[in-house]
Specification:
This protein has a nine-stranded mixed beta sheet, sandwiched between helices. Helix 4 runs parallel beside helix 8. The longest helix has 23 residues. The chain contains ten helices and nine strands. Bound molecules: Dihydroxyacetone (2HA) and zinc ion. Dihydroxyacetone binds next to loops.
């Protein structure tokens, strides 16, 4: 028995997570237990699941998050591998319910798999998304090789330098990642400081942020769209790298070409 049985909408969200987890592994972005995915599945939860008792918990979140009171999340399990989650999402992740005290959660199913070590930062981001009325329901953290490599160049970490390079490699990147890539300076993984800096940078109007020398954190309407933005940015990073490996720095599209693109596609920046 699975809580996904006879709940096709919930099952579809979890299947999308499994599909994306497979892509992360195949692309080489998810070594060992690297990366995390959380999805707010509250809209896919029915009254019978709401009435079901927890199978584990309550556990403290470590912070008070009033806007996600009573919400449900599918979360990758701590120390679990993306490549395993791709095949067995309910053995390597679980659905949790945020309790009315807004400071703790319990596990609803299928198994008592403890959520990701980055749970407080992921939930804090979801809390902020709900607070500002966003329709975004998914967050993805992963370690894309070429983007992380670029974050080792201090010149690229100045505001929007990397964004403009990546946008100018191919028109699709600005069209499909129109807010660009925010930069969060190196901070200890799983730390509260990293969570706070991530939220501040997302609120500075980015959908994807780079954690210097670590990885990226993306939010989107669903897990597939969050993945697509990281994939699009990485495509540009690969074009940049390939041009450099051919012996030249790529010129990039001109400012006039970028402006024309923004005007025609009504892009926000
Ligand atoms: O959970 O990638 O940053 C694994 C990570 C933490
Ligand atoms: Zn990481």
């Amino acid at each position: 028995m699975s809580i996904l049985d006879n709940r096709p909408a919930l099952a579809a969200e979890v299947e999308k997570v499994a599909e994306v987890a497979g892509y992360l592994w195949t692309k080489g972005w998810a070594e060992r237990n690297g990366g995390n995915i959380t999805v707010n599945v509250t809209e896919q939860v029915d009254d019978t699941l709401r009435a079901m008792p927890a199978i584990a918990g309550p556990f403290p979140i470590g912070m008070t998050l009033p806007h996600i009171k009573g919400c449900y999340f599918y979360c990758k399990g701590t120390n679990r591998r993306m490549r395993d989650l791709a095949r067995w999402p309910m053995d390597n992740g679980s659905v949790i319910r945020i309790l009315d005290d807004c400071t703790s959660y319990e596990i609803v199913g299928d198994k008592p798999v403890m959520p990701t070590s980055e749970l407080p930062s992921h939930l804090a981001v979801h809390d902020d998304l709900i607070a500002k009325g966003s329709n975004y329901r998914a967050s993805v953290h992963t370690h894309p090789i070429e983007l992380v490599a670029m974050s080792h160049n201090p010149e690229f970490l100045k505001k929007d330098v990397l964004t403009n390079i990546l946008w100018s490699m191919i028109p699709e990147t600005k069209a499909f990642c129109p807010r660009g890539l925010g930069i969060v300076p190196y901070m200890l993984p799983s730390s509260t400081e990293l969570a706070e800096a991530t939220i501040a940078t997302l609120n500075d109007d980015y959908d994807v942020v780079m954690w210097e020398k670590h990885g990226v954190f993306a939010v989107g309407p669903d897990v597939m769209e969050a993945f697509d933005m990281i994939d699009t940015l990485t495509k540009s990073a690969i074009i940049y790298r390939d041009a450099c490996s051919m012996g030249f720095i790529p010129t990039g599209m001109t400012p006039e070409q970028m402006k024309e693109l923004s005007d025609v596609f009504h892009l926000p920046k």
